[in-house]
Amino acid sequence: MADLVLRNARIDDAAGLVDIAIEDGLISAIGPGLPVAATDEIDCAARVVIPGLIESHVHLDKALLDAERPNPDGTLAGAIAVTAELKREFTVESISARARRVLDMAIANGTTMIRAHPDVDPIVGLRGVEALLALREEYRDRIGLQIVAFPQEGILQAPGTLDLLRESLRRGADVLGGCAYNEATVADCRRHIDLIFDLAAEFAVPLDIHADFADDAADPRFAMADYIAAVTDRTGMSGRVTLGHMTSLAGQDPARRHDTLTRLAAAGIAVVPLPATDMHLGGRADTVNPRRGIAPIRELWAAGVETAYSSNNIRNAFTPYGNADLLDIGIFLAQTSHLSGPADLTRVLSMATTQAARIIGISDTYGLYPGAAADLVVLSTDRLSHALLDRPDRCYVIKAGRIVARTTRINELLPQAQRC
Questions:
Q1: For the chain, how long is the longest CA-to-CA vector?
Q2: Delimiting residues of CATH 2.30.40.10 domain(s) in the chain
Q3: Which of 21, 247, 351, 367 fits 2 for a cystine, CB–CB 3.0-4.6 Å?
Q4: How far apart are CA 310 and CA 57, in angstroms?
């Protein structure tokens, strides 16, 4: 007997409805009209079922800070400065309280896995990592959590950070981060990259690097992608390096951009644009035709670069809005990147599901097939290609076979105007 069966589910717009049986936290069977008894059943009534959404790049430790102090000028430099001041007062308890609010939002919105980037530096020490290590255990039955030790303030210009990163990995951080642009010189940026590759090799962990986060590549500190690709090739890290933001790609001339994207694809480097932040901070100095400041999605696809997207920040100096809702971020990405039509929109959805799973290294247990983890979302739409357009409710959110959130909404059209 199955623990749970989802009946009459839509998982493919070109195919008929199927049932999805779940046992012991795994999908045990998928097919039309499964002759399976179950302890519990959900009639999806032709609604779409997708694998759980994946936030592949979020800063839980810095979430919800905008209520305390907003960014005075809206720039990246202003956001870093404001946050550096605020985090001097961080405690493990304050980080945990804000992070819980975002985790709860994410779960309600259908997210079943988050890769989080807590700051690690002499200002905040290991408080962010400590908070998220505890939350990873506290929330393990409701949402998965990968922890990235992230040197927001740089390494060379923040002495002591390298030792803190090493200690974060000793304590259980899953991934090593980097901030490739936040050093004083190009030589120091390259040294920063070399150091994190060496440390990642020491602990056998993947890398997730903030890189090339500017309107253009005029400042060479924001044009590190080619160097990162070369180091990835040299160190044999193909398939284990992810770059976040990458906004300056859009500011390169087409020939140079093509060369860079070709190198990233050949090196097996993934790219995660963060459109809510990238659009908000970009183009601040432009008085005519302000730049979008988002990495060129269609060109990333064409080059064969594995690509996801994520929320990045929630209501702080970097991004003063957001609800940890990946479907909202997905439709925003499509609107600002000239993506449209069923094929494009279905592919954007895959950037928050199957592509994100490959990027964060969980694809061997993720998806819609027998044996995969039963991390699923039932959406209030009957077309997979409408999962972004319809802004659907997350009717049921299922983690490891258990329902962890549900949304019930009544929307009634009356036949004629009614007096109040």
A1: 73
A2: 2-51+367-406
A3: 21
A4: 6
- CATH architecture, domain 53-365: Alpha-Beta Barrel (3.20)
Say how many Å lie between the first and final Cα of the chain, rounded: 51
Spatial CA neighbour of 176 closest among 160, 159, 156, 162: 162
Tens digits of per-residue pLDDT, 249-263?
A: 999 999 999 999 999
Helix axes 254-266, 225-235, angle to 10 degrees: 20
Residue intervals in the chain for CATH 3.20.20.140: 53-365
* CB contact set of 138 (below 8 Å; sequence gap of 6+): none
* DSSP codes joined into one string, 256-323: HHHHHHHHHHHTTEEEE--HHHHHHHTTTT-SSS-------HHHHHHHT--B----B-SSSSS-S---
CATH number of 2-51+367-406: 2.30.40.10
- DSSP-derived letter for residue 373 is B
- Read out DSSP for 90-144? --HHHHHHHHHHHHHHHHHTTEEEEEE--B-BTTTBTHHHHHHHHHHHHTTTT-E
- Give the residue among 390, 328, 295, 361 at the shortest CA–CA distance from 56: 361
